[in-house]
Amino acid sequence: MWQTIKLKTRKVTCFQTGCVLFNPALSSCRSRLNASREVAPVSLPNCRLIKGIETGSEDIDILPNGLAFISSGLKYPGIKSFAPDKPGEIFLMDLNEDNPRAVELRISRGFDLASFNPHGISTYIDRDDTVYLFVVNHPHQKSTVELFKFVEDDNSLVHLKTIRHDLLTSVNDVVAMGPDSFYATNDHYFSDFLLMFLEMFLGLTWSNVVYYSPKEVKEVASGFYSANGINISPDRKYIYIADVLDHNVYVMEKHANWSLTHVKTLQLDTLVDNLSVDPHTGDIWIGCHPNGMKLFYYDPENLPASEVLRIQNILSEQPVVTRVYSDNGSVLQGSSVASIYQGKLLIGTVFHRALYCHL
């Protein structure tokens, strides 16, 4: 049975400031990773693992017609990979089918498939119904955003261009704003692995959000421990940002010049990863890591758990947070995303498998 979670009010106090100044960095880091947290199981009765997805399903984006894109095969510094030498893939599932299966999408010639390392994804449907897929890519541990056109007739992606910029240093996720524009989260200030680890260990709040278009690129939000998932409200007035190491979701108002202003922060007790938004209800679905220490320090005898939260009425005075699913890792390890379509739920992971459920 789903569990409704009582929210905690977040207040910055002198005590917290003192902790930052005087507590050992290790203790603070363990707290951000929820190193001692365990969750009770919450099962769903009608779920099955998706055949063919064995090495991750880090992000999922579902079109209004029920076609779901799934990024797979992420190799991320410090995170387990079950196929470190295998290139990443993009899968497609048609959730209108009675027994949907994952089909790998072909990618057009000329694109460097050997170094393909997909992370966050986002779709955009243009006025002529062209579907564009934005994919965060980490070839050779760099950060780019790849822009593809989806060709449904032959299940393929046509690569249009690779986007690089000095402000896109350590991109985690994107949300498309147009056929060639987006917001992107940088989960670290540094791109070097050792400096990234030091940044996390010291609790530096140097992570940010960037707006990109061919005409303008600028920072629009900053001060995060590690900005991760990002998405937009159905009315396109608000941007939602997950700070995975601060255990919260930010609500930001979007303005005509693409700048963002803070509206509210919802504090949770888990490491929030990717955000999906139900286009009909506005509910936010989140793939979470109950214990980040288990994710970063992989032990097959003590597996990283999975957790899915649903947030209803986030703009209200009393949002409702429900734990829809949780597992100790015996079924699903390291959940990173949860996406909904007409009573069907897809749960993805950083490096493990993917789950398909009927709610």
Automatic annotation (TrEMBL):
It is a peripheral membrane protein. Coiled coil: none annotated. GO terms for cellular component: extracellular region; membrane. Binds 2 calcium ions per subunit. Its main location: membrane. Its EC number is 3.1.1.2. Glycosylated. The active site is at H119 (proton acceptor). It catalyses: An aryl dialkyl phosphate + H2O = dialkyl phosphate + an aryl alcohol; a phenyl acetate + H2O = a phenol + acetate + H(+). It is an enzyme of class 3 (hydrolase). This is Paraoxonase. It comes from Geospiza fortis.
